[in-house]
Structures are given as C-alpha cells and as structure tokens.
Amino acid sequence: MKKHLGTISVIIFISFFMFISHSCNDTQKQECAEAYLKADSCYKEGGKLIDKNSFVEAFQKFIEVVELLEILPEDMNDDEISLVSKSYYQMSHIAKNVLANSAEIDMLKRALFYQDMIDDSNLYARVIVNLASAYTTFELNDTAQYYINLASHYIDTISDDLDNYYMFQIILSDLYYQKKQYDSCLYVEHQVIKFKDRRGLDTKLDSVRLGVIMFHSPYYLKAKPYLLKILEVLDVNNANFAPIMTLLAKIYERENNADSTAMFQKYAYSMADVERDRYNNSMLISNLYENIKAKRDNKLSALREHKSVQKRNIKIFVIALLVITVVTLAIVTISKKSNKEINKHKTIVGNTLQQHIHTIYRNQKNYVYHSILKEFSAVYPDAYEKFKNAHPELTETEQAICLLSFFSFRRKEISIILNIQENTVSKYRNSIVKKIGTTEIEDIMKDYL
C-alpha cells in the first residue's frame, strides 16, 4: 500500500509542476527578448535626444521603454527592472529641466521603487539625491532631510563621478537657506567652489548660484560680482538665465545705472520666448506622464487580476490533488488510528477510577456529570476544590471540561455529558488555553491530586 501511495504522490506532483511550467513557453520568452531589444534601442535614442535638448521627443522615447517592459515587478527580470528604472530616472531629469516638479517626484519614486529591487548603488544614490532636491523645491524639509540622510552613505569625493557630491552639497545649502541659516548656507556654497577650483573645474555657474543666494539674503550688496559671472556663460537659449538678468537689472537700478539696467532688462525680455517654450513643454510633459501613469496603473491592475485568477485556478487544482492524496492516505492511516484507540482504551481499563467513570457515562442517562464529580471527589478529596480555588478565572463549564478531559473524554462525549453543542466545547477549550496558558488540558487536574 505504501509503495502505491508513493507512486501516486509522485504522479500527482509531476502533473502539478507540468501544469505550472506550461504557462511559460518558448514563444513568450522570445517575445520578451524582442521587447527588451526594442526598449533598449528606444532608451539609447532618448539619450541622444536629451543631448540635443529635444526634451519632449526624448520623453516619448522613455515612455515607450516603460510601455514595452513594465509589467508586474515580480515577473520582470533584473535587466528589465534596471532599464525601466533608468528610464524613469531620465524622465525625471527631463521633468526637472522643464520645471515639472510634481511629476518629477513621482517619476523618481518609481525609479527608486525599482532600484530597491536590484543592486545599482550609483543610480540609487542619484535617485535619492534628486528626490531630496525635488522636495526642497516644495520646502518639504523633513522629507528632503530624510532622503539626504539616506544619500549620505553613498557620497564620496574620490570617484570620478562627483555629480552626487555636488547635488548633495546644493541640497544642504538649500536646507540651510530655507531655515534662514544664511551663514551656513553660504559656507557650503563657498566650499563647493573651492572643491572644484582645487580640481581645475569650471565654477562660473556655481558662482552665479552663490550670487542668487546672496541677493536673497542679508548679504545682497555683495551679490553683484558673482551674478556677473553669467556673462561668461550666457546662452540666450537657456531660460534659467532670465531671472538672473532680472536680478542684475534690479541691482543696477538701485545704483542708478540706467544703461546697465536697460541692458539686463533687455536680456531678460529676450529670453521670454524661451521661458514660454519651457512652460509649454512643462505642461506637455506633465500631461504625457499623467496619461502613461493612468495606462500603467490600468495595465498593472489588469495583470494583477489575471494573476489572481491564475492563482485561484492553481489553488483549486492543488486542493483537488490534496483530496485525492488524503483519500489514499485514509486507507493507510485508518489502521494506525485503530491501534491508537486500542492503546487508549487499555490505558483507561488499567485505571480503576477511569474505568468506573466511563461505566457511569455508558450506563447512566441523567446527572452523569454530578456522578462523575462525586466519584472523583471520593477518590481525591479536596482536589476539585483546590483546582477551583487555583483557577477562579474559569467558569463552571470550563472547570467541568477540565475534569472530563482528565478522564480522556472526547469532545463529542463532553458535549453529551454537559448537554452543549460540540463546537461550543471547542470554544470553551480555546478559552481555557488562553486563560491558563497551556494546551495540555488533560493534565491540568494532575497538579491537584
């Protein structure tokens, strides 16, 4: 019999694994490989478009990557997760350039979600540093501080790629500025400039940033020489420079220098079209992202529902297999159960009191419990009273169940003796376990004999 049972079990589980593996066939693997190659090509094209400042076109390429690869995270491999994560990061970079700040945060969170699933510490650091930066834009300092603390473990000044370090310092400066700790803010900015100078790196834009901060601080009178560095990097296609031109115009207006005031106002006005284009791009990219976000959520929801149905079907299949197994096992275990009942009966017969108690149960129709309690007290005087005094938290019914369990009465027999439902006996037993803290209800009375 055992030999046949083993054979049946092997057949059952082989059938089960064949059922599971059937869902992942060669055709699906081929489709996944083709989708990845296409997505990788789109990602590279998007990078080239960013270099050309074609932000909207680049954004659409990264959207295509996400649409090709993003499914339920647990069904994606590491290469797919990495590419999707990098695409969300690139999308956030574009959103930052066109000042679509709320969309940028959502994209960075999505990138971070996938970064937590793979080991890419460099991009992970960039994502959390940029998240901190995005939150400082909304002056959500506690959240920004959380991410900057998280990023601090990944910041170094030794590697060739120091972008994370620079961004880290800028965020620290912004946090100091928002707290109106201007001296600390300016100190960090000066340290960044010195750090770059020692490495022979260009610091003109860093000086301009310092000038902007000084203009909006108690040191505004010293801001002009730093702001003037903008003339050395001036690009009329860069809308970021328009506000700086306006600041310089205000400084010269205070100095009653009409010519310089007019010149810088002219610079600011000439950049208005670029600023308008950036605003339009910001709105376009925000709308594109909201659309892809809605499509993504619907797609993932549908996939999740489909997977739930599959799990349900598998569960039904497994239950059916278990039923077959249980039926087969029943034939083998029934003889073992009979042996246990015989051994249990021998133990009862071997004990004179238990034998007498069970005789009362079999022969007496009324007041069975009172007769059992009377016989027990005759053999073990005061034992039941000691038990009741030791456990006042137990109800009379629970105390009775403890006594009957001592005599090895089964649940059904207890229900007959106490005239209660069988499932009620189970509830009382659970209550006893919670109150006393032991699962061996049959042994509770032994301590008072």
Structure description:
The protein is mostly helical and 449 residues long. The chain is built from 20 helices and no strands. α1 packs antiparallel against α14 (272-349), α3 (55-69) runs antiparallel to α4 and α9 packs antiparallel against α10. The chain is elongated, with a radius of gyration of 39 Å.
The end-to-end span amounts to 46 Å
**pLDDT averaged over residues:** 82
Beta strands, count: 0
- Counting DSSP H or I runs of 4 or more residues, the number of helices is 20
Unreliably modeled segments: none
Q: What is the beta-strand fraction?
A: under 5%
- Provide the structure class: mainly alpha
What does the largest sheet look like? none
In N-to-C order, the SSE pattern is HHHHHHHHHHHHHHHHHHHH
Which shape, going by the Cα principal axes?
elongated
Helix content: over 70%
The rounded Rg comes to: 39 Å
Oligomer: single chain
What is the fold's blueprint, element by element?
Blueprint: H1 2-21, H2 26-51, H3 55-69, H4 78-97, H5 101-115, H6 121-137, H7 141-151, H8 163-178, H9 182-198, H10 204-215, H11 224-227, H12 242-254, H13 258-270, H14 272-349, H15 352-363, H16 368-379, H17 383-390, H18 396-406, H19 411-418, H20 422-436
Helix pairs in contact: 1-14, 2-3, 2-4, 3-4, 3-14, 4-5, 5-6, 6-7, 6-8, 7-8, 8-9, 9-10, 12-13, 15-16, 18-20, 19-20
